[in-house]
Queue: 4 jobs
Job 1
Amino acid sequence: MMSLAEIQGESEIVVMREFDAPREMVFAAWADPKQLAQWFGPEGFTTTIESFDFREGGEWAMVMHGPDGTNYPSSILFTEITPPELIAYFQRGGRAGADEIAFQSTVTFEEIGRQKTRLTIRMEFASGEERDETERDYKAIEGGRQTLNRLAMFLTKRGVAA
């Protein structure tokens, strides 16, 4: 299944994809910084993880590096973690030198079969205007799709169909 992404509600973006992989494996790809660094971000991007404290109240500092050399530093505060079902976090960041964007994300991992997982990312912005600016300036919908496609390729390399 290709990933689905769309604007929902007044101030949300939702990205979803199904994986032919156990929920625990998909969750681990988000919970382990060594795995995250191999797939996180849109096509052509690389990610440097500066720190990663995977616990409620813990922080994740990273820089995504665009294919054109632009850096996108982000600071993430984990607000809720329920293995292997849910990761929620508040993210601040954006293009280096530009106005900061901020949003709350909730990532759910739904077991939909013995070896099948539906992953849903719900990004909630303070307003529809902030959501629309993020989509316009950062192509968040397409970036979300590409990020989950990269996760699928990573899981396939690990020996499961995604």
Job 2
Amino acid sequence: MAEKTSIIVEPGKPTIVITRVFDAPRRLVFEAWTKPEHLMRWWGPLDLTFSVCEMDFRPGGAWRFVLRRGDHDYGFGGEYREIVPPERLSYTFRFDGAPGAEAVETVTFVEKDGKTTLTNTMLHTSVENRDAHVRSGMEEGVLQTMDRLAELLDVMSR
């Protein structure tokens, strides 16, 4: 049975909490989340393709992704704040289409019995910014993205 992705958006709080259990050890989930050659295979909705994937993977280093649908580009970026392999990441997240609406994402990887629970907590600067993120189609994108990550981890685990 496939695991389900949980997305929690509490009224009045500027957070989005995404949780998914993957049938893979956390070192593998961390690797898939942090190496461009893997990340480009799963990050983002199904109908978008990567045109740019730049990662200076160190605290203070920047990241930049540009995904394309047809002739339209969607740019994302931020800065790594904390990297504790294979347990935790923290970084800022910006969408080019919403300047000034930066969020901080904290991702934890907890392994138990060979499975990894990934929890991604997005802290927005306001409830209004969080709500705009949710209205952008974030939920469908997250569900597709987490399913794509699960499929990649299945391949990587073999």
Job 3
Amino acid sequence: MKSRFLFLLFAAWAAAAHSQMMRPPAFMGGIPGGAQFQAIQMQRHQARTLLYREALEELRKNPAAADVPECPPGKVPEGTLCLHRPQAAAPAAPAKAEAPAAAAPPQPAPAEVKDAAAEPAPAIASAPPPAAGRRIAVLFGNNDYKMPIPGLETPIADVAKTAEILKARFGFDARVLKNASKAQIVDALNRVAAEATPDDSVLLFYAGHGYLMDDTRMGFWIPVDASVKTAANWISNTDISKLLAAIRARQLILVSDSCFSGSLTREQKVVYSGKPRAEEVLRRRSVLVLSSGGDEPVSDEGKEGHSIFAYNLIKTLDSVNGTTPGYEVWRSVHGNVSKEYQQEPQYGAVVSAGHAEGGEYLFQPRQGSY
């Protein structure tokens, strides 16, 4: 009875908050049950759909309204918003001369997340992997949105703590951008594309608002300079895939903590057939996405000042010992998040950005890390 009362109270408050362009509060009286949680989250989605109605109507008339043009050949003028053209595909690293070339493992069939989570996670072979290049991480945390888009509380704290762990435990050159605009996000990813080599390992993390169109199923990031009246400053999944394709690093992963971020993982779910060897994995082009949820709104609430997804990602990364595939990181995060919330973190490969058969992202703690 009490939970029903709290649900009705929250629903009434959320409706009033939307009319006043206010951000809904954290859950009162603890986390509600599954059905109530889904109802609250869908109500939030409906409120955001109403909020974005003009921008969405623009996208229905012109699906390319948010698209960023490709950069022209030659030197690009300072301040030009454009996408770097994908460079030559990252070549596979040559196998050792004395060892026969290993056959690529068969392509696994797509699997639902719950099925994949039930599978035992394979261990990466313990032999030392080939020498890698630099480790580069770029993390975007967006809290401060322009009214009437409601602000968020945890993204900056989420990316700052993740960057701290990536530096200390994994040796990343971690760059944090707070309250990034569309131009700042595109420019930062273009810079990574310009400097990364095939031997580098690149991790990208976006935490902020996102949206999925119900009719076209196209997903978007919503940067801090986004508007509810036009989609011009939104970033589409199509452009995100192009930005990933332009980064030549064979080891590339995108972590996305936003509503409907699972739309980025649709191309190919990651499951395993046999036990991958680190030496072979690192010779392949790997483009993976770890998202905070599927095709549903994700929780704004969390623990200890972090979103529920970021809290569990931070705990998982902080406990990694030895070379660990992204699949195992996802499986740990997925299990812990879904125990408490009606939220399903996803893990998938972006084939359109050059992901190769048998590819995987490897988290490798540096020697001497705590």
Job 4
Amino acid sequence: MSESAARESTTPPPDFADAIGRVRLGRLASRILFYPTIGSTNDVAAALANHEGDVEGVVVSADEQTAGRGRRGHVWHSPPGTGLYVSVILEPGAARVDPDRATMLVTLMAGVALVEGILAATGLQPDLKWPNDLVVGRRKLAGILSEGVGASIAGGRVSTVVVGYGINIAQTAYPPEVAARATSLESELGRSIDRAIVFAQTLASLASRYDDLLAGRFDAILEAWRRRAPAAVGARVTWTSPAGPQSGVTAGIDDRGALLVRIGGRIERIVAGEIVWL
């Protein structure tokens, strides 16, 4: 991370610090960097992971992102004061049980944690949509971007992942290209929402589910994800494969988090790519 970026970071605002002090964060929040304005919290977190040791649990957050992004290069609208923009450095490759599988399940684990954190903070329980969205009906409330980075730990190479998430908190004027498919906590609940409480509760839930991941409690994570993802079974989807456009009906997820889609009499396993939900 550049010296200028380090100088621009501050401690969290007092209301955020107070809310954090009321929850259990376990191995997370070993350090919390807060930026009034930043390009991308994931970029700063990745730079930390690449250039500093002992960064597990570091949290990078911002009031505004000028270059926020989602999966596959999509822009994440990040105006000041209206959302949460957070990135956390995790080390699933150091899991005690099957580190490769733990790394594959990071995004699903984070999705479960965010639903649980939002529920605890607001009473609203959004649904999950594979692989990285939280939705209310057909409108997107939050998104997750997990990006692997290299990090040298104890003389070896382990898989380190930056898990970034954005949650729409307040009603705002979304860009035309996303206005029809975006929503916010305040829009859904019809009342003001305390961002600090959502920040603290989502981190607390992430800490708890991250412990599950590191301990190899994969079935607990997968079962929780399936309960919160009704569209994972029986929804019609399309996507582009190396063989060309494909379509089918979702048939759940497997034990490594891949989406299963039924095409005629066979099951296709999808691990990445752009899925269109019909």
